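Revision sheet: structure tokens.
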Amino acid sequence: MAERKDDRPLDLGLYARGPERPGIGKAEIAAVGFSAVWLVAVGLNAALDDQPMTAAGLVMTALAAVVPLVLVWAVVATARSLRALRDEAARLQSAVDAMRAAYVQNQQQAAVTLKPSVERKIDEIAQAARQTETVLATFTSRRDPSLALAAADRRQRQRG
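Predicted:
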């Protein structure tokens, strides 16, 4: 199998993905801060409680600690997906704009290159029509009815 001589990545220009954004954005930083504050608050609440922890109380405390964190991180994941979708939509829009511009340019070039050949064909058809008119005019002018009878009479005289 032939190896590629040039191992440089292919430059896709307009269609290439933009620079990757860092994985940790403002939403992630805010979620980490909220998670830390929330866990500290739940831990302090459980530690400062004077009553002994029952099984039901432990389950409720665990749910109170985990459910808000799950919701916050679900919102962060959704925000990250939304950001990726916006980037993809912008890239697709630029690709569609580029394809539209290329199509229009191709149509304009085709019209410019096609126009002389169409004009040449029209001129050829007009020339052929003029030649046909000329031939028909000559053909009709030779066929004078009175001369045709005289020519027929002459032929009969030559035969007889």
